[in-house]
Amino acid sequence: MGSLALLLWGVFPYIVLTIFIGGLIYRYQKDQFGWTTKSSELLEKKRLRIGSLMFHWGLIFVLGGHFAGLIVPVQFYNALGVSEHFYHNIALIFGLPAGIVAFIGIVLLAYRRISVKRIKATTSMGDWISLFLVILVIATGLLATSMNIDSHGFDYRTTIAPWLRGLFVFHIQPELMADVPIWFKIHIYSTFALYVAWPFTRLVHAFSFPIRYLSRNYVIYKRRIRHRAS
Ligand code: HEM
Description:
Number of helices: 9
Bound molecules: protoporphyrin IX containing FE
Strand content: under 5%
Helix content: 55-70%
Largest sheet: none
């Protein structure tokens, strides 16, 4: 195993994780009131609704697929008699449409942000960076999947998945990444860039009751309470 491989797949992931967790703790300590998605609903509502719904619901299915393919060990599917071919087809049938919906959603949100003057004016550098990184991660994920449609003998459940799980128990195995096709590597490194930016942008809102976020109003409006003079 070369030292570059060790650096890329054994050392950098921990640097990224340290910035991610350390950054979140720092942000929580320093800026609890800024811990928000910075709602722009008041500025424009219609396009926000459709873009945001598509992006978030698409993403939930994408991340569910990532859990099934990367966290659940391949041995589990083997024990159930699920073949590689069958698993791959299911992953494509559900994963690709979910990824495409999330992609269309985020592109609509980006378009809204660029085309509505008032929103553009209230967009910070951090907002642009997070928007760009989310688009990059989804686009590279879709590319990786599209380049691997006939799977050509490459199964991420016996390579990327054990490499990723190993990181969480400090069992680094960079050799598992040696023959991974380049698009998957680019996808993973794009996610690393996203994790580094995460704590310092509006992306932190993902850690605030993500489920309630999907059904509640974008901004909580409070009724004015009239105090009767007694
Ligand atoms: C270290 C973290 C991650 C790893 C190791 C990883 C790995 C992968 C792999 C192996 C695939 C191919 C799935 C298939 O072909 O069935 C994929 C696809 C994809 N990934 Fe990731 N990914 C990570 C994080 C993310 C994140 C954070 C996002 C979104 C914000 C994302 C978005 C996508 C999308 C949209 C696809 C296209 C296929 C689909 O919709 O499921 N990934 N990723």
